[in-house]
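Run log // design_07
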């Protein structure tokens, strides 16, 4: 079995057993990127030379007999939203095409400390705004299962790279579904942890009360390994939760017999495409065979999650993106006539259409006379959505349903219809509004395209969530399937 056909966990075991070296792994996956990424466009910046040096250092640590963690020497890639010292960090935008970060994000620091070997920075929707990875200044990313389809977004580059096994795992971020939706579209496992579980320091902000860093990998077991390393309190992040890091790995393999899984009736209405409905129903049967109980639940306000999100997120984006003005860093227009001209032309040239659209929406929602009518009202409904989830969790241990309403759609198919594009996140946005952990796991195929199952847990119940996903993956092989072109 070749390296790319093995999971992160299996590669870790091979390193520990002396069956391979970190350099051999790095060289294999670098060769995969060179061979295949010309078609997929998953990488914005490669760091192959540094990766080989880091792999050699990992091999030296192992040879010296040091006690090493399970991730030491394993290759991965970062979504290009995490500031990485000495490496271009673009956030998928022309605005930051020339930005070399002077420091590391906390997530970058933690994975470096774990000994992981970064192969590069992955493509993404500009400033994480999008559901298809078509808004990137660096071009669209293609779905590894079908190059005419989107990989999902905003973390499409991260998802497609893992889907094609150009790398065994990647980081991502999720503001309204940007890990779970592309994980579903690319046939891999993706997890968004509880808000505050992973530090946001050095993660370029889109919507500060919603953004959360997470993981893409082949399996729940792999995701648990990486999320464990990324988690923990960070005093540099005011939204970081001060609590011990839970053991996300040792509990994998525990029985889920007697656990109750809730199925929101709102997730199974007429808007759900038949192939997705059928795949989710089959997945629920697997959980039943594992001893879990299933019951219907009601999330009465979840239908308002999309309009709430598209008031709250753009409002926060308009504030966060005001820092990109051509004065301190990033793109600056040529020969500005005065300061006003500098601001206007820099932002007109540096931002793409979707980013401009959301800045305008957000600025309008925060403006005098509209703040109470839109922003405050949206925040009140957000609280109702959160309360609906908390009430449901009084009766159930986990919530399950489709990750997306349909199969991966065609490139260019929805670019002229933003509202339809936004509805791709209809099942995922509520989880961000409530700050809950959620994940997507592969649960079926239709017409050669993958289908994802979404699992949602209680606050800080990532261990329970990952274990349930792991149990499912022990009974199925959807997560082991690779696109034919990349086997």
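design_07 sequence
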């Amino acid at each position: 079995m070749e390296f790319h056909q093995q999971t992160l966990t299996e590669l870790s075991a091979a390193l520990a057993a002396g069956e391979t070296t970190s350099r051999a792994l790095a060289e294999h996956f670098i060769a995969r990127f060179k061979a295949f990424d010309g078609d997929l466009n998953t990488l914005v910046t490669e760091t192959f030379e540094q990766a080989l040096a880091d792999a050699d250092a990992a091999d030296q640590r192992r040879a010296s007999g040091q006690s090493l963690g399970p991730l030491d020497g394993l290759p991965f890639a970062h979504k290009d939203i995490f500031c990485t010292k000495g490496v271009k960090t673009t956030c998928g935008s022309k605005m930051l095409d020339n930005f070399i970060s002077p420091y590391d994000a906390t997530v970058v620091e933690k994975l470096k400390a774990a000994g992981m070997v970064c192969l590069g920075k992955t493509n993404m929707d500009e400033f994480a705004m999008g559901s298809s990875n078509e808004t990137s200044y660096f071009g669209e990313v293609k779905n590894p299962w079908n190059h005419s389809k989107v990989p999902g977004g905003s973390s499409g580059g991260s998802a497609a790279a893992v889907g094609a096994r150009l790398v065994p795992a990647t980081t991502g971020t999720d503001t309204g579904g940007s890990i779970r939706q592309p994980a579903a579209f690319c046939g891999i496992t993706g997890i968004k942890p509880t808000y505050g579980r992973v530090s946001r320091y050095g993660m370029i902000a889109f919507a500060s009360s919603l953004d959360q860093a997470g993981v893409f990998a082949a399996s729940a077991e792999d995701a648990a390994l990486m999320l464990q390393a990324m988690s923990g309190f960070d005093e540099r992040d005011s939204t970081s939760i001060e609590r011990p890091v839970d053991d996300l790995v040792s509990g994998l393999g525990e029985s889920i017999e007697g656990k109750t899984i809730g199925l929101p009736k709102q997730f199974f209405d007429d808007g759900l495409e038949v192939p997705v409905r059928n795949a989710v129903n089959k997945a629920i049967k697997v959980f039943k065979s594992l001893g879990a109980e299933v019951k219907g639940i009601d999330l009465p306000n979840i239908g308002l999650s999309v309009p709430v999100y598209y008031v709250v997120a753009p409002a926060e984006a308009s504030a966060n993106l005001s820092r990109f003005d051509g004065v301190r860093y990033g793109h600056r227009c040529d020969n500005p006539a005065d300061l006003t001209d500098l601001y206007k032309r820099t932002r007109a040239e540096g931002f793409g259409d979707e980013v401009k659209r959301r800045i305008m929406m957000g600025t309008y929602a925060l403006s005098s006379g509209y703040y109470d009518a839109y922003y405050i009202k949206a925040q009140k409904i957000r609280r109702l959505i959160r309360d609906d989830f908390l009430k449901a969790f009084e009766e159930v241990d986990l919530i399950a349903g489709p990750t997306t309403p349909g199969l991966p759609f065609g490139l260019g198919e929805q670019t002229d219809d933003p509202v339809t594009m936004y509805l791709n996140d209809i099942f995922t946005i509520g989880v961000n509004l409530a700050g809950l952990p959620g994940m997507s796991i592969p649960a079926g195929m239709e017409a050669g395209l993958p289908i994802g199952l979404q699992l949602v847990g209680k606050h800080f119940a990532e261990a329970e969530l990952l274990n349930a996903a792991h149990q499912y993956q022990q009974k199925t092989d959807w997560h082991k399937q690779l696109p034919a072109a990349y086997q």
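The first helix runs from residue 8 to 16.
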